[in-house]
Design a protein that fits this description.
The chain is α+β, with helices and mostly antiparallel strands. It has helices at about 5-20, 30-45, 50-55, 60-70, 80-100, 115-130, 130-135, 145-155, 165-175, 185-190, 220-235, 285-295, 315-320, 345-355, 400-410, 440-500, 515-525, 525-530, 550-555; strands at about 105-110, 135-145, 155, 175, 180-185, 190-195, 205-210, 235-245, 255-260, 265-270, 300-305, 310-315, 360-365, 370-385, 385-395, 500-505, 510-515, 560-570, 575-585, 590-600. Helix 2 (about 30-45) packs across helix 4 and helix 6 (about 115-130) crosses helix 7 (about 130-135).
Length: about 600
């Protein structure tokens, strides 16, 4: 039976989503609450609603909270058997499939501080060489943690962090940098880091490999299902999905075929109707054919989904308007193309609301070379069986036609152009079989319960690893401060020992805190016998009671007090002892008195 929801936790999650845009509502509640309460314990707040009030008053606390929730435990070549599979099997198959001149696109999901993305780059560089890597490969590394992404973009790592990189790779791809080692610029340029929320943002499309290791285990089953569907859409036909050791994908066999369960390697399965073989060798399937038509069209064209996110742009659109791969997945209204060369945001909204096409003719545009171009712009809603799939926006280049008609007949301003409708292919709805035999249902339930328990244990293991690293850092700092304190104490002890006069250090309670060699020689007592004792209680041949008043005057702020007293030294000889009292001050605070005692020569 499901546990009762924690309403206070839900209020806190709603507040975080509404104020900072982080939607944690799809995360597993047990793990999420445990991480939040860890941060609450660190700031000394026991109640969830009190912590919500703390966030309202201290906005900087959001950063510390997100760093606690988003456990960034990663390393280079993590789980070596997996990377042996990637280097020895997956990458060669991808390289063979795209051919000698084809582009390779890889998506590293939940990249944290970038170790896995750079590992992929090194493995690919070994397979095809650095020059080909620069020209043909794009590795999209995404995460929701901006602080971790900033570290990843810098590409600088400590000596301890790069220990797991093979020595020959370190020599080939890294170079010394301030505070550690940095990856070479030509390798870093192939990795594109960006913030991406798996729950809310559109997936990156047309990728050959998705690496999503130990990221999905934080989400509940419903959100995991949505993410798997997004991965299926993002991958090319028969492309690869690599998961973490805690993620089994037991219930998605109709979308992904397991190739190596032990190392969590899966292959995309085409949806029904997506591939239609016709028995002729060398003929591409329908999806690839439509992609090729879209990509090679002479008309610049982009596709925006119903939520207003740019999902595709063909080659002509990228070259004409400067649309780049990182722009895919961004809100359309944030791009310059949404209002230049013509305002398209309102037309997009109207196409979604009214489900009818609209056009804007004779739109002037100056490209990057300074040439004047004229476009006819069409905004066409894409419908499939009365379902809104998105909006196609095409820019037909009518520059020559426009110039010819202006020269021949300026009175006629209407341009004739052919309307070409290109309907983009989207992933067909997932078909599931709800009528399973009772034995299969029991087995699936048992497997999912075991998987959930395994994911919880993996989460706790990573939390313990993170805590252990924090304790190790604190222990190193404590050892350093202990060494500094020992050096300081030895230095002060050397100073006191080198003075020929007798020196006694008292705290504000007249307790002895220092007793040098001169004091031992003059009064016959060693430091261990007097340390911590009240100086006025000593019987050393010196009328110490007469020093009570001078010591209190120094403690009250007098700079110096001195007087000469008759005394008996350790040999019982009568002497005249001159006693000087000076304050022991630290940071403008008098913390005790320093007594210097010398025999007055006759």
């Amino acid at each position: 039976m499901a546990s009762e929801p924690n309403h206070e936790l839900e209020q806190l999650l709603d507040y975080i989503r509404d104020n900072r845009g982080f939607d944690f509502t799809g995360y597993k509640r047990a793990s999420l609450e445990r991480r939040i309460r860890k941060r609450m314990h660190e700031v000394g707040i026991p109640e969830l609603l009190d912590y919500k009030d703390h966030l309202e008053v201290h906005p900087e606390e959001f950063t510390h909270l997100f760093n606690t929730i988003l456990i960034n435990v990663t390393s280079f070549f993590r789980d070596p058997p997996v990377w042996e599979l990637v280097a020895g099997d997956i990458i060669p198959r991808i390289v063979e499939r795209v051919g000698p001149h084809g582009n390779i696109r890889i998506w590293s999901v939940g990249c944290a501080s970038g170790e896995e993305a750079y590992t992929l780059a090194m493995v690919l560089a070994e397979a095809i060489g650095l020059p080909e890597l620069r020209d043909r490969v794009k590795i999209y590394a995404t995460d929701v943690d901006e602080e971790a992404l900033a570290h990843a973009r810098a590409g600088v790592y400590s000596a301890k962090a790069i220990e797991s990189i093979p020595p020959e790779f370190r020599d080939r791809y890294l170079q010394p940098a301030d505070g550690g080692s940095a990856f070479r610029k030509d390798l870093r340029r192939t990795v594109i880091f960006g913030r991406h929320d798996l729950v809310q943002d559109a997936p990156i499309s047309r990728v050959d490999l998705i690496s999503c290791r130990n990221t999905l285990m934080y989400f509940n089953a419903d959100v995991q299902s949505r993410i798997y569907r997004a991965f299926h859409f993002a991958l090319k036909s028969e492309a690869f999905l690599l998961l973490g050791k805690s993620e089994m994908l037991l219930t998605r066999t109709e979308m992904f075929l397991p190739l190596d369960l032990k190392r969590r390697l899966f292959q995309r399965v085409s949806a029904q109707g997506e591939d239609r073989p016709n028995g002729r060798a060398g003929v591409p399937d329908d999806a690839r054919l439509r992609d090729a038509v879209f990509e090679s069209a002479s008309t610049a064209q982009i596709v925006v989904d119903p939520d207003g996110v740019l999902v595709s742009a063909n080659d002509r659109a990228r070259r004409t308007f400067g649309v780049s791969d990182p722009d895919l997945g961004r809100p359309f209204h944030q791009l310059q193309l949404s209002y230049k060369p013509v305002e398209l945001r309102s037309r997009f909204d109207r196409a979604i609301a009214e489900r009818r096409a609209s056009a804007v003719q004779s739109v002037a545009w100056h490209d990057s070379n300074g040439d004047s171009l004229v476009f006819d712009v069409q905004v066409v809603p894409l419908l499939w069986r009365d379902t809104m799939l998105g909006v196609s926006i095409s820019f037909a280049d009518v520059t020559q036609t426009h110039e010819t008609q202006e020269q021949l007949e300026r009175s006629r301003r209407e341009l004739e152009t052919a309307y070409e409708e290109i309907q983009s292919t989207v992933e067909e709805l997932e078909t599931t079989n709800e009528e399973l035999q009772s034995t299969n249902e029991e087995l699936e339930t048992t497997n999912e319960e075991l998987q959930s328990t395994n994911e919880e244990l993996e989460t706790m293991n990573e939390e313990l690893q993170s805590t252990n690293e924090e304790l190790s850092t604190i222990n190193d700092e404590l050892q350093q401060r202990t060494d500094e304190l020992n050096d300081t104490n030895a230095y002060l002890e050397g100073i006191l020992s080198s003075l020929s006069a007798a020196v006694v250090v008292l705290d504000r309670e007249f307790a002895i805190r220092g007793w040098n060699k001169g004091a031992r020689d003059l009064w016959g007592l060693i430091e261990d016998e007097v340390f911590g004792s009240n100086f006025l209680n000593l019987d050393i041949g010196l009328p110490v009671d007469q020093l009570r008043s001078p010591i209190r005057q120094v403690l009250a702020g007098e700079e110096h007090q001195a007087l000469t007293l008759p005394a008996l030294n350790r040999r019982g000889r009568q002497i005249e002892c001159r006693v000087s009292a000076t304050p022991l001050a630290s940071q403008d605070e008098i913390r005790g008195v320093i007594l210097m005692m010398e025999t007055v020569e006759e």
